[in-house]
Amino acid sequence: MRRSDLAWNDWEAISRFLADQVVCRIAIHDDPFPYVLAQSYRFIDGVFLLHCSRFGRMAGLIRRNPHVTIEIDHLVALLKAPKGQNTSFEYYSVLARCCVDLSEDLEAVRRQQYEVLEKYRPERDYTPIDDFAPAQIMTFRCNVMQMSAKKRILADGQYSPPGQPQAPYLRYPFPPPAALSSLPPGAFDPNRFKA
Q1: 109: how many CB neighbours lie within 10 A of its CB?
Q2: What CATH number does residue 16 fall under?
Q3: Residues 138 and 54 sit within 8 Å (Cβ to Cβ)
């Protein structure tokens, strides 16, 4: 990483960040350009859990080459300083290079879908997964081979980076992002569907 001052090395904080975010971007080998798309995911024990249709482009590409890159980011605020080149952002960003293990076994697909539901439906207020859905999708475990993380979070009035003319940044925060922590408590009410 060129900017060592932006390196984010707090694994506990990175794990919390990955658990809270709801969308990752996954880059898959294709020719002549990488195929990149947004996916919901769960990160647990150093593995990203994802799924897709068994019959689509994504499935075909991953079957051909199981090496993927996953990126998750969160923009926090716009930063402005008097000099134009000092316009920037506060952010968190994680980049993971992974090798994929695919599964089309119905019971393995069902088990992984329940694992992912623990992130999005911890209240467990849903009916069991039927037999139709697992037959339509495949699951994949993206085993992390290499991961790096960056963050840039400034204190109010903090000055520009080392080597730049001294000028304080002004912060303009973005509204809360799409993250589990930004949902109201009622989103996880286990009694919501009860009469």
Answers
A1: 21
A2: 2.30.110.10
A3: yes
Domain assignment present for 183? no
State the Cα–Cα distance between residues 83 and 99, nearest whole angstrom: 43
List the structure tokens of 162. 């080392």
Does pTM top 0.85 for this prediction? yes
User: Is the separation of the CB atoms in 102 and 66 below 8 Å?
Assistant: yes
Sign of the four-CA dihedral 10, 151, 147, 37: positive
| Within-domain flag for 133 | yes
Helices then strands, counting H and E runs in the chain, come out as: 4, 8
Whole domain around residue 135: which residue ranges? Answer: 4-153
For the residues of 49-60, what is the DSSP string, one character each?
A: EEEEETTSHHHH
In the chain, how many domains are there?
Answer: 1
In a structure prediction context, what are the per-residue pLDDT tens digits for the chain, which is 195 residues long? Answer: 567 778 899 999 999 999 999 999 999 999 999 999 999 999 999 999 999 999 999 999 999 999 999 999 999 988 887 777 778 888 999 999 999 999 999 999 999 999 999 999 999 999 999 989 999 999 999 999 999 999 988 755 455 555 665 667 788 889 988 899 989 888 898 887 876
Residue 73 lies in a domain: yes
Question: For residue 177, is it within any domain?
Answer: no
* The dihedral sign for the CA sequence 101, 107, 111, 113: positive
